[in-house]
């Protein structure tokens, strides 16, 4: 029962931590560090929640979650001799259901995203063209403003003809640097589990807020990488021009520079950047994130 109690407390702590983190503003000063913390919270919450149910259900075996599940699999039976055994059976079925749902929605989201990206690459091969002024970038003949990347092993950065007319050369370079950051850092994989969790728990406000927070942090992380190679004010100006123009929605499975509803927040951050978090604070958060990520798997091995 100790393992079940500790895992339940850990799951509750992750939920409270996620709730508090959605309103935190220090994350804007270190988006990459905050993203790692978000990932640790998400993984730990899933393993701690299912682990608490399994630990309670398998407590009579006294072997922990992992070994208890192996014993149950070998015996292929669950004895119900007393009333509380029925409660344990419900906990076991709930744990299995929750784990199956979390894995299923993650796999389904991944498959849908990969299919959408593959379909869009095929479409681009038919309608997009190369432009000498922007080598390595695919251009679509559309008057609206569009700039996005299709991530993957063969990532592609796409802009519209309207974007070429809308932005100056410096602004275009800044926008392309932002999209290349999305592609190189595979931000689609960062967003995938949070989108999948939102599908599994669409009624949970904290899950919606978490997904929105991570999406904003991903854009800020791409902004930070882009401003290594361009003027932050040029990127801010490009974002404002996109906001005032007729923008084309970002296709499913792609990442766009103006995705989301927080463009002005990013513009203000680019124009008046806050000081970065001190190095020792970042290292402390990274250490805590790593410890959090390994805590639930270790507790799965703790005897009941």
Automatic annotation (TrEMBL):
Domain of life of the native organism: Bacteria
Signal peptide positions (record): none
Family: Belongs to the peptidase M48 family.
Transmembrane segments: 86-111, 283-302
Family annotation (PANTHER family): POSSIBLE SENSOR-TRANSDUCER PROTEIN BLAR, SLR0241 PROTEIN
Co-factor requirement: Zn(2+)
CC cofactor note: Binds 1 zinc ion per subunit.
Ranges of residues in domain Peptidase M48: 115-201
Listed InterPro entries: Beta-lactam_resp_regulator, Peptidase_M48
Record's keyword terms, sorted: Hydrolase, Membrane, Metal-binding, Metalloprotease, Protease, Transmembrane, Transmembrane helix, Zinc
Organism of derivation: Microtetraspora glauca
UniProt-listed Gene3D superfamilies: Metalloproteases ('zincins'), catalytic domain
Protein name: M56 family metallopeptidase
